[in-house]
């Protein structure tokens, strides 16, 4: 069956962006598909939304308040712009989730990125799933949904776990069941919050990994944790190398047992600036990426990267010219 595009009775998909010439980028036929209706106000139509709970409706973005319990504190602006471009073409594929505070006031439960991207895309209204929720239920839903579905960094996940434990009165076993993680995983995340602020910021900004952070937690002295963190960043230490340093007594005093006399990470035998100069010189010399990795007691290794067998032969010829 062929549907005339100009037929007002033709079905309209509320999830796709509509022409701006109609109210909020949508057609009148929408009222036949979702809860809500239109009324005139001067020369402009507006949506009147008496949505019942547990329904999906079209909500003007200006009526949706931000989620005060949003665990994510940083949004990648480039990724947000890409999502906005996708929404301009495809529309909102999945409704956001909100709770109703008043006749024309809603509060976001989940879908912060979709809401922000929709605003960037110029949408006047977006589809939303309306739920009933008190403050505690809203906090729990927002945190758990973000943990399960968003790409939170390790610190944001740890803070979310902590809030669920303290503000929602959950035990670690219950928390693990809610987020689909075992208790040891939850405990490992919570231990990250014991790290000094500098280290937490480094983990949040991806200067170190979760593996690095777990090794740093094993050191009791915060000053030594920061010292080793700075060395990890400066020397690009692997997780295995950091674990080795900690096992060998990094950060412990002589009274704390064998191996504790290992030199502090903040004072490498070869200064970091000199290592970097050496790397640059060798990289220029061989025309390939060269890494210099210091080890204990003045030892270390030099790594030369190559892209193919021919490239390896070229490097060997530089090392051993005929």
From TrEMBL:
Renumbered to this chain, region (Disordered) spans 1-24
Organism from which the protein derives: Hymenobacter nivis
InterPro entries for the chain: Chromosome_partition/occlusion, HTH_ParB/Spo0J, ParB/RepB/Spo0J, ParB/Sulfiredoxin_sf, ParB_dimer_C, ParB_N
Family in the record: Belongs to the ParB family.
- Which residue range or ranges hold the ParB-like N-terminal domain? 57-147
Name by which UniProt lists this protein: Chromosome partitioning protein ParB
Q: Which NCBIfam families match?
A: parB_part (TIGR00180)
Q: Where is the composition biased (Basic and acidic residues)?
A: 1-10
GO cellular component terms, alphabetically, are:
chromosome
For biological process, the GO terms are:
chromosome segregation; positive regulation of sporulation resulting in formation of a cellular spore
UniProt-listed CDD domains: SPO0J_N
The alphabetized UniProt keywords are: Chromosome partition, DNA-binding
Task: Give the lineage.
Answer: Bacteria, Pseudomonadati, Bacteroidota, Cytophagia, Cytophagales
Q: Name one GO molecular function term.
A: DNA binding
């Amino acid at each position: 069956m062929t549907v005339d595009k100009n037929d007002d009775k033709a079905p309209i998909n509320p999830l796709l962006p509509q022409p701006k010439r109609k109210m909020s980028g949508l057609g009148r036929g929408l009222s036949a598909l979702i809860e809500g209706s239109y009324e005139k106000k001067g020369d402009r139509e507006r949506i009147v939304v008496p949505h019942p709970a547990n329904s999906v409706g079209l909500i003007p973005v200006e009526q949706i308040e931000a989620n005060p319990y949003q665990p994510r504190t940083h949004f990648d602006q480039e990724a947000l712009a890409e999502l906005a471009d996708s929404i301009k073409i495809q529309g909102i594929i999945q409704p956001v989730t909100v709770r109703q505070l008043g006749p024309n006031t809603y509060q976001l439960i989940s879908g912060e990125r979709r809401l922000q991207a929709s605003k960037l895309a110029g949408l006047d209204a977006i589809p939303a799933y309306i739920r009933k929720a008190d403050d505690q239920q809203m906090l729990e839903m927002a945190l758990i949904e973000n943990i399960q579905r968003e790409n939170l960094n390790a610190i944001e996940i740890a803070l979310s776990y902590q809030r669920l434990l303290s503000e929602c009165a959950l035990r670690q076993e219950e928390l693990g069941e809610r987020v689909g993680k075992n208790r040891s995983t939850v405990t490992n995340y919570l231990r990250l919050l014991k790290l000094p602020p500098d280290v937490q910021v480094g983990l949040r900004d991806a200067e170190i990994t979760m593996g690095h952070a777990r090794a740093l937690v094993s050191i009791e002295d915060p000053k030594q944790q920061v010292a080793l963190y700075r060395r990890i960043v400066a020397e690009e230490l692997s997780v295995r190398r950091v674990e080795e340093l900690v096992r060998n007594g990094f950060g412990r005093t002589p009274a704390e047992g064998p191996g504790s006399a290992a030199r502090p990470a903040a004072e490498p035998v070869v200064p970091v600036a000199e290592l970097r100069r050496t790397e640059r010189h060798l990289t220029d010399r061989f025309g390939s990426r060269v890494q210099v990795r210091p080890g204990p007691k003045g030892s270390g290794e030099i790594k030369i990267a190559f892209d193919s067998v021919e490239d390896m032969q070229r490097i060997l010829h530089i090392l051993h010219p005929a």
